[in-house]
Structures are given as structure tokens and as C-alpha cells.
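Quick check before the chapter quiz. The format below is the same one you will see on the exam, so make sure you can read both the input and the output lines.
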Amino acid sequence: MKDRDLIQLNVLTMIFRQLAALLLALILCCFPSPAQAYPYPPPLSFSNAQLRGRDFSGQTLQLAEFSNANLERANFTDADLRGAVLSASILLAANLHGADLTNALVDQVNFTNADLSDAVLAETILLGSIFDGANIALADFGEAILDPTQIRQLCAKASGVNYKTGVPTRESLGCRSNV
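Here is the expected output.
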């Protein structure tokens, strides 16, 4: 190869590298990274909060944190609580009518006299929760994790078919027909 051909090859290689660098800079500059393109807000945190009587009706509260919160008489009517954490919270006389608690962590929660009618509690962890006087008509407990004692207690008052999922409450709890 002659010196002249070698010089031309080096010049072409240099031009190609500069064009490639320019193209890469344009791509990086004009197209945001996936982290920039889809900003996800951090989950809401209400842990250890005093939220008596608070109105959360119709709100989107996916992945929200309500651990150890006082939610007595709070209103969660038709709220989206999918994946929320309500561990060890107090929901005395709270209104959760039509709320979606799918995949939520709701262990050791006091639901005494709460309205869970038409709520979706599918695949929810409810171990150690108290349901004394709670209205569970039309609720869907499909594949929820409950204590056997809780299941017996809930089956004694289970009735109706959930409007959103079409699943009968008794069936979702695995109630026997004679219970």
C-alpha cells in the first residue's frame, strides 16, 4: 500500500469515527434514558400517622404505606390501594366500600365495624386481622391469605357476588356449602 493510499485510509477512518461520535451524541442528547422517560413518583407514606376520619375516597394510593396508622372512620370508598401496606393499622368503622386492595399487605389490622362491602381483597395477606362486626357482603377474598379461624368467622356472614370481579364472596373464601 502506498503512502498516499495509507493517508487517505487514515483520513476516512478519522471522518468515520467523528461521524459515529456525532451520531452517538445526537442519540444520547435527543432520546432520554429510560429512567428519565418514565419517572415514577415514590410511594406515599402515612406510617404511624393519625388519620382519623380522613377522606381518601376515589384516590389512587397504589403501594402507599399506612403501617401502624390510625385510620379510624377513614373513608377509602372506591380507592385504589393495590399493593398498599396497612400492617398493624386501626381501621375501626372505616369505609372501604368498593376499594381495591389486591396484593396488599393488610396483616394485624383491626377492621372492627368496617365496611368492606364490594371490596377486592384478592391475593391480599390478612393474617391476624380482626373482622368483628365488619360488613363483607360482596367482597372478593380470592387467594387471600387468612388464618383458618378468620375464614370460619367470615364464612358465617359471607354473601353476594363482587360487582367488579363477578366472584361470589363465599367461593372466594373457600367456604363449605353447609357453613
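If your answer matched, good. The first helix runs from residue 3 to 30.
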